[in-house]
Automatic annotation (TrEMBL):
Annotated PROSITE patterns: ATPASE_DELTA (PS00389)
Statement: the UniProt record of this protein carries the keyword Cell wall biogenesis/degradation: no
Protein name, entry field: ATP synthase subunit delta
Top-rank lineage group of the source organism: Bacteria
Gene name of the record: atpH
Compartments, as annotated in UniProt: Cell membrane; Membrane
């Protein structure tokens, strides 16, 4: 995974620079999401990896599948990636690009796992508390995971706050062993 990130980073930076120059952050997000979805499709990957296809044919196939939804710069990116045998990096490029975009826009994506669905009031209170703690705008999504019994697990990038009952029980068991 670290190797993929290392390989994808220069491409993500180039895309980010292009988006900054043109003010097309959302358009690039959409293009990268579409391309990532395409290269994640097993059938299309089988076609793209066929040994008889040249890099140009791979790029044309991928851009053809996407149709008119890609801008010219995105098509150029596909061509460069195909020439360098790096089409598989598109999901990682997209992820890195989204991280750079979020940092620029001072936003963070937060995933909250709870044992039960959060009410709108609870979501709003939690969102405001996270906004104050992280000092940035918060885009929150929630998931229900009954295995955590109670409480919540909050993930915001590298930050993980485990306030779940399962997590507290694990810490207690570990403390009792030592």
């Amino acid at each position: 995974m670290a190797e993929l990130t290392t390989l994808a980073r220069p491409y993500a930076k180039a895309v980010f620079a292009e988006a900054s120059e043109k003010g097309a952050f959302d358009a690039w997000s959409a293009d990268l999401a579409l391309l990532s979805a395409c290269v994640a499709d097993e059938t299309l990957v089988g076609v793209l990896q066929h040994p008889s296809l040249t890099a140009t044919q791979q790029a044309q196939t991928l851009t053809g599948v996407c149709g008119d939804k890609l801008n010219e710069a995105a098509k150029n990116l596909v061509t460069v990636l195909a020439e360098n045998k790096r089409l598989a990096l598109l999901p990682e490029i997209s992820e890195l690009y989204e991280e750079m975009k979020a940092k620029l826009q001072n936003t963070v994506d937060v995933v909250v796992k709870t044992a039960y669905p959060l009410s709108d009031e609870q979501s709003e209170k939690l969102s405001q508390a996270l906004k104050a703690r992280l000092q940035c705008d918060v885009r929150m999504s929630s998931e229900v995971d009954e295995s955590i019994i109670g409480g919540a697990i909050i993930r915001a990038g590298d930050l993980v706050i485990d306030g779940s009952l399962t997590g507290k029980l694990s810490k207690l068991a570990e403390a009792m062993k030592s």
